[in-house]
Amino acid sequence: MNEYLKKVLEETESKNCSEKEYIQAVKEVLTTLEPVIEAHDDYEKIALLERMVEPERIITFRVPWVDDNGQVQVNRGFRVQFSSLIGPYKGGLRFHPSVNQSIMKFLAFEQIFKNALTGLPIGGGKGGSDFDPKGKSDNEIMRFCQSFMTELYRHIGQDVDVPAGDIGVGAREIGYLFGQYKRIRNAYEGGVLTGKDISYGGSLARKEATGYGLIFFMREMLKAHKNCICGKIVTISGSGNVAIYACEKAQEYGAKVVAMSDSNGCIYDKNGIDLDLIKQIKEVERGRIKEYLRVHKDAEYIENNGEDSPIWTIKTDIALPCATQNEVSLISAKKLVENGVLAIGEGANMPCTAEATEYFLATNVLVAPAKAANAGGVATSAIEMSQNSMRFYYTFEEVEEKLDRIMVNIFNSCKNAAEKYGCSGNYVAGANIAAFQKLAKAMRSQGIV
Known about the structure:
Strand order of the largest sheet: 9-8-7-6-10-11-12
């Protein structure tokens, strides 16, 4: 490895030794940048990489709230404002018990590159809390969101930092957060949060955007290798927004989606997933995916009994991990390859372990990396911000058309960067290189800050 890259990696590991997810994200990017670093020997002099891997700001705060029994609860809140090189910090809020500083930093670091790939003027950030919305009443969630925003409001703004949703933060939570922000600020700043409901400034197609964007990217990647989605068997982990709308668009393109999952297990329906039923269970009833069997009794439910999800043992042409980070291990990767998988599309953030990704690439499986393939959500969030600024709204079809064009451009950026630096077909490296070049140029232009 290039000595400069090696030094920065060692320093990052030493400074952040307890943050395994963050180190994994940094290593995944830096190990693909060697040909670019070799061509720019001045980067070390201006400490470009050292500055790129260090967040501009990390905010940690206490979130006290009162549950329905009158008991005071305390959670921890985070906002990592990683990079404002090309625009205001932009990235979601995650409410999940697993949330910690390492996960927040890894997500914010990924967000920098993802947002750069969109071609839109947005920086990178991420935030959230170890609060778990599952099993909480609407009033408990409202009280938590109001307490969370009472601290967060002083660190965000439509030209400073624009949060959105993520795991555990949907339209309900965004509504409570926005209402509290508006009350504290005594002003309607529509662009301060994205993922809002249509009734008060949200964008049509935002809910669908990440899933649709993933399929648009997969379409382009497969087309570049003289293949297509139509007629393929697809498995999709997760059953949230990304998974549901990736399934919808894949079915629209003629694929047969046979499996989806949640944290408890997965369903396998050889006849093809009944997406309307999944939407009813997950979006309306907020139930568990096992309830799918109450209608489709011939479908199979496989419970999670270990670290490796059973969904990856199902024979498939295309696997779309859309649940959470590191859900596809090397063991799962080997099973997928053994069963003849053609392509992996990362709908979640960093869903494949480093070993799994390396194995896929070594066995000539096409990999659509998260920072490129799931950028449709944040791209449409930026479109929502622009609509808020204009006091004007696009139709669903207009937003979807813009999203499709953005995803095509992202794919071409990844493809061209990979070809230019001698790793044609490796879209993981291509995505990292294309985003890094844009960020490096902005960093050099703005001086030592």
